[in-house]
Amino acid sequence: MPTFTAPDGTRLAYHLLGDAGEGADAPPLVCLPGGPMRASSYLGDLGGLAARRPLVRLDLRGTGESERPRDASSYRCDRLVDDVEALRGALGAERVDLLGHSAGANLALRYLERHPGRVARLVLVTPSVMAVGVDIAPEDRLAAARLRKGEPWFEGAYGALEGITQGRATPEAWEVINPFWYGRWDEAAQALQAADAVEKNHDAIPVFAGEGAFAPDVTRAALARCTAPVLVLAGETDVAAPPAAMAEVAGLFPAAELVVQAGASHHPWLDDPAAFGEAVERFLA
Q: CB under 8 Å to 14, separation ≥6 — which residues?
């Protein structure tokens, strides 16, 4: 497992999947995990994408195989940008293709904002919108949820989601809506969800989005100047990042491509690996 040292001395780990070494035919795709602050292991090989494209999965500081920093405030999203830039340097790459999933998309966007010349292509997979300040309408979430009507768990989960969108969230409600995060609530999805609590750095979560982490006006201005090709990949049934909001994210760029993966939710590589891999590889190629 390769490691590198962040500017503040924290040892960080990353995982190579596929041929990401020197002389590889395709440039590596640097993958930033969500959570926030979840170990990158949940991304796996992104549904077999590593067979098409070498992947570099970063364990953010304090997660997975990476060290916890001495300064806990360095978990803040904008400060994590320095770690991504240090990884690029460790890879010896002039520019990288960059993928951010969910909360990791916030970090990808803040990196693009600060280092626009270092990003060759950008892939945002069911991205969180905190960095750009997009408001997601409750009805957009509920409309995506209603596409799952008829599944055995739907009634209870939909009622819990309605309560959450109306400001009546309870700890139990967040558990009940878990099936909505996946296109199929099968054993693979349940295993991935069960690992979520174990793989997150819970101390770092509130810091990641703490005061100063985001500057939406600044980020939006930077995205409007973006010259790199951008793919925004949404899940048709994703209540966290519904397609209407993803279209708004895509519209922040001069010419981003929006792909809505049919039948997919927040983890599209798990829901339909072939469709996900084809969409991402076609874009990167």
A: 1, 2, 3, 4, 40, 56, 57, 58, 59, 87, 90
Q: What is the CA 202 to chain-centroid distance, rounded?
A: 17
pLDDT attached to residue 23: 39
Which parts of the chain sit beneath pLDDT 70?
A: 19-26
- Look at residues 179, 157, 152 and name the one whose alpha carbon lies nearest to residue 267: 179
Q: How far apart are CA 118 and CA 108, in angstroms?
A: 11
In this predicted model, what pLDDT tens digit does every residue of 47-58 receive, in sequence order? 999 998 999 999
pLDDT at residue 169, as a whole number: 87
Over residues 9-36, the pLDDT tens digits come to: 999 999 999 864 443 556 789 999 999 9
Residue whose token pair is 């077999």? 48
DSSP collapsed to 3 states, 117-138: HHEEEEEEECCCCCCCCCCCCH
Give residue for tokens 């891999």. Answer: 277
Structural element, H or E, at residue 247: helix 243-250
Phi, psi of 182 (to 5 degrees): -130, 145
DSSP string for 190-210: HHHHHHHHHHB-TTTHHHHTS
Contact 12, 66 (CB under 8 A): yes
What's the pTM value of the predicted model, to 2 decimals?
0.96
Q: Is the bond leading into 36 cis (omega within 30 degrees of zero)?
A: yes
